[in-house]
């Protein structure tokens, strides 16, 4: 494909239109049959293509009997581009006016769900620090607090809570038992105890469109579920448990 052909394709011409246009330029005023022979295309197809090129302003005709087709000179292509620019400017103005209506019709697509697994203490710390990037600045925590204490040392927990405090992230937490650790938590917390007859074996933190699950200290892994529907479901479950949880 030579340079001229590439440019014509960028202007929106099909391969057939390019072949007919170039053949017509070479021949000058010509019968459709001559153009078809030069372009190596069927005559019926060439008639159709000539009509398309006429609509695009690239072909004119002379004579009634034995009608001949004349390709417009190449500088006409620049005028076509200029016309398209003007048409696009008009469309852009109209689109700005229609934007409000179009936005009201738009239905966001549901983000695909995703599950990520992390193993070991360092992997679990990575997951814990990812929670600090919450957009909603709110964490819903359902956890056996003794498990978290067994997995993360006080130095790391103090660092994590200090970071949460700096970012103004609040939380609602339902714990399996009161926490007696000397680690200083931020003021951004509201804690209740798990309802009677409910045992927590893993810790779950719900935020934004994510649900993070931390395993027991023995198995040391965590996984993150990214799902709008699942996160909304778990937030709803948490709110029901919160109503039944014991205030401290």
Shape: rod-shaped
Per CATH, the class of the largest domain reads Alpha Beta
Mean pLDDT figure: 85
CATH topology of the largest domain: Endonuclease, Chain A
Widest β-sheet, arrangement of strands: 3-9-8-7-4-5-6-10
Order of helices and strands: HHHHEEHEHEHHEEEEEHE
Q: Biggest β-sheet: count, sense, barrel?
A: 8 strands, mixed
Helix content: 40-55%
Structural class: alpha+beta
Cα-based radius of gyration, to the nearest Å: 35 Å
Number of strands: 10
Write the layout of secondary structure elements.
Layout: H1 3-10, H2 15-27, H3 32-39, H4 43-55, E1 59-62, E2 68-71, H5 76-105, E3 114-119, H6 120-130, E4 138-143, H7 145-151, H8 154-166, E5 170-175, E6 190-193, E7 203-207, E8 210-214, E9 221-226, H9 228-244, E10 246-247
Parallel strand pairs: 4-5, 5-6
Antiparallel strand pairs: 1-2, 3-9, 4-7, 6-10, 7-8, 8-9
Helix pairs in contact: 2-3, 2-4, 3-4
């Amino acid at each position: 494909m030579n340079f001229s052909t590439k440019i014509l394709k960028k202007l929106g011409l099909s391969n057939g239109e390019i072949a007919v246009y170039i053949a017509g330029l070479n021949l000058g005023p010509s019968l459709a049959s001559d153009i078809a022979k030069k372009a190596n295309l069927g005559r019926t197809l060439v008639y159709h293509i000539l009509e398309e090129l006429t609509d695009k302003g690239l072909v004119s005709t002379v004579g009634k009997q034995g009608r001949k087709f004349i390709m417009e000179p190449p500088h006409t292509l620049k005028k076509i581009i200029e016309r398209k620019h003007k048409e696009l400017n008009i469309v852009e103005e109209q689109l700005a006016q229609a934007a409000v209506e179009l936005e009201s019709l738009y239905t966001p697509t549901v983000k695909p769900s995703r599950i990520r697994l992390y193993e070991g203490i360092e992997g679990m710390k990575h997951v814990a620090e990812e929670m600090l990037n919450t957009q909603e600045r709110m964490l819903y925590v359902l956890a056996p607090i003794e498990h978290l204490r067994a997995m993360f040392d006080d130095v790391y927990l103090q660092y994590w809570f200090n970071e949460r405090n700096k970012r103004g992230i609040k939380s609602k937490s339902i714990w399996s038992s009161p926490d007696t650790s000397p680690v200083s938590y931020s003021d951004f917390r509201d804690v209740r105890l798990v309802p009677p007859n409910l045992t927590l074996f893993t810790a779950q933190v719900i935020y934004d469109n994510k649900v993070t699950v931390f395993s027991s200290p023995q198995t040391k892994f965590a996984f993150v579920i990214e799902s709008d529907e699942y996160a909304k479901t778990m937030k709803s479950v948490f709110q029901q448990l919160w109503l039944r949880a014991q205030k401290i």
